Structure prediction request, 378 residues.
Amino acid sequence: MAYRDPVLVVVELKGGNDFMNTIIPYTNGIYHDCRPIVGLREDEVLPMNDTLAWHPNTVPLKEMFEQGDMAIVQGIGYPDSSRSHFRAMDVWHTCEPIDIGTEGWLGRVVRDLDPKGENVLTGINFGKGLSRALAVSGVPVTSVDDLDNYGLMTSIAEDPKRMQAIEIFKTMYKPAIGTGVVMDYLSQTGLDVIRGSDELKKAPAMYQSDVEYGSNSIAKALRDVARVHLAGLGTRIFYTQHGGYDHHANEMPSHPKLLTELSEAIRDFFQDLRNHNASEEIAMLVFSEFGRRMRDNASGTDHGTGGGAFIIGDGVNGGLYAEYPSLDPSRWANGEDLEHTIDFRGIYATLLEQWMGMDATPIVDGTFEQIQPFKEAV
Prediction:
């Protein structure tokens, strides 16, 4: 196959995915003692080894892992982790755990990939609004809610939708960086992004596939990612979200449903790309802002710290990376959380340097421990 530029797809699990109920320490008595309500029994899970197991609703992910296409990053987080959704995502999006950051890490990536802003499709967000991870003043990034009816944040004709998107954007960022910065960003980038709309509209017409994606939001978003990637429009960074992971209550019916949607969507996405001989240049990062607490509550789990992430792709050397947090109560963060065992900025740096072939230090604001999840580094 001729060389093609590496592409990064980022999937955010919004709300704080319960990593301990996704990759489950099923033979550990402390897990079962702490989770009499939401814990899964040993006879319910899909064993990975003698200590860890998959949630029964993640069969497609389990199969990808067994095929060697998935790296599981255990214990991902950062020191003194915030339990606030807003602050935690702000940290993950800007790589600034102490100060309030004004530049998204992926926005910096787009700027480095296309310093003159020649291709407004270098970075694309699928979903309402625009992730802060992609926001850097002067760096155009396209945001698409519905590829088949494209117009969100880019089409002047669809003014109500455009204004709704701007309001979402302002609500997301004003508490951290102020209205002025938000409006400056929109004024500098909004008109630039319109330039890419005609190109982006070509993607659905060019797409043919035998893969039948689900009807849920993450399946639709990843299908859109596939359609744009297959159209060859030069996009290097794709970003999307799967919401609903904030399970303070009713975790048992809700979390399994989300894991089913996520697992099947990722499987279908990679199958689609492989059918088109377009998967080898793709690496996917799946992450969430934090894990959940050790002990369950009445019917769910509350905000915690250490979590987990997945790196998926044909170029991945599958396996377990970093260390699963200790379940020993003496090691619990804040007296009730899983501790973090590897800094998320090191995982970003791993993807940037080993996959994208970029200098990660100025993007993640420092040097952090990396893992080696790829068969061959660029």
